Amino acid sequence: MSSSGVAPGAQPVPSAPGAEGALGSAVPAARWLTVLYDDGCPLCRWVRGWLERRELLVPLVFVPMRSAEAWRAFPFLDHDRTAQEVTVVSERGEVWTAESAWIMCLWATARFRGLSERLAEPAWRPRARAVVLSVAAMTTRTPRPPDCAGDEAGACRIDHGPSGHRAPVLEVRR
Question: Which of 21, 38, 120, 160 has CA atoms 20 to 30 A from the CA of 98?
C-alpha cells in the first residue's frame, strides 16, 4: 500500500466473489496481514524472524501453511497452492501470492515500505524475492539466508522463486 493507503500491486479480480471495480483498482489499507509459511523450512523461519524484528506499520501474524489454524482461518484458500507459493492474506480475505506476497511482507515494515512500492512496479516485480532476501541479509547479523534444501525434511515445501505462470496478483474473497 502506498502512503495513500493503497497496496502495491493490489488488483481485485472481478470474477472473485465480492470483488468490485475493474482490474487494477485500489484496495483499502489492511489492518493486519497473515503470512502462511513453511515452518519446516529454514529460509521461511529466517525471514519470519527478520520480519518479527522490524518495526511494523501493519502487524504480521505468522501461521504455518496447511496447519489446522490455516484451514480454520482461511477455508476459502487453495491450501495446496499455499504449499507451493508464499501466501499473504489480509483480515478481509485479500490474498497475495508469490512475488506479491514478498512485496506485501516488505510493505508491512516501516523502513522498507517505499522499497515495496518500487518492487510493485512491473519491471521490478520479478525481482521481489531476491530483493527482500538481500535486504534482510544486509540488515541482520546473519549475512546470508539459509538454504531451503538444507532443512531436516530434505527440502522446503514452498517454491520461493518466480512462478512459471502468472496468477492474479490479488484475489478478493468475502
Answer: 21
